[in-house]
Amino acid sequence: MMLIIVLSSSKSHTTTNSDTSNESLAVRSLTSHRHWISGVAWRPGTEHQLVSCSHDKTIKLWDVRSDIPLHSVEGAADKLLAVLWLDSNRLAAGGADKQVHVFDLKPIELVD
Q1: Region 90-111: what's the mean pLDDT?
Q2: Are 66 and 41 in contact, with CB atoms under 8 Å apart?
Q3: Is residue 12 domain-resident?
Q4: CA gyration radius, the chain
Q5: Is there a contact between 48 and 112 (Cβ–Cβ < 8 Å)?
Q6: Distance between CA 34 and CA 54 in Å, rounded?
Q7: How many domains, in total, are found in the chain?
Q8: 13 — alpha (psi -120 to 50), left (phi > 0) or beta?
Q9: pLDDT tens for residues 57-97?
Q10: Separation CA 79–CA 53 (nearest Å)
Q11: Which of 14, 50, 55, 108 is least surrounded, with the fewest CB atoms within 10 Å of its CB?
């Protein structure tokens, strides 16, 4: 059986994890951002972890098996517009400040 997981983000400040093998649309809504979520990305090599970035200038690291973020990264000067994994421990995020920010998550224990 193949499991397909679809992620979406919205101005309602939630990231929705949808399981299309199940008849229900929303399996879990991940809520922690204070403003629009503008990007999401799966962590390479894992099936349960992802990051989201937001206009609230934060990046949230999630395990989709939990309702609360594993970690929150703050410090961007302006709203964040996109996020991607450079490898399994580093993120790059771009924002309205026209800068690319690189975040090293090695000090955080990221166990799948």
Answers
A1: 83
A2: no
A3: no
A4: 14
A5: yes
A6: 8
A7: 1
A8: left
A9: 999 998 888 888 988 988 788 999 999 999 988 999 999 99
A10: 9
A11: 108
Domain contains 10? no
Query: Model-level pTM greater than 0.85?
Result: no
Please tell me the distance from the alpha carbon of residue 74 to that of residue 80, in angstroms, as a whole number: 10
Report if residue 20 sits inside a domain: no
Residue with tokens 């395990």: 63
Structural domain boundaries, residue 49: 32-104
The CATH number assigned to the domain holding 68 equals 2.40.10
Residue with tokens 């991940």: 30
Give the position of tokens 């229900």: 24
Residue 45, CB-side half-sphere exposure with 13 Å CA sphere = 8
* 6 found inside a domain: no
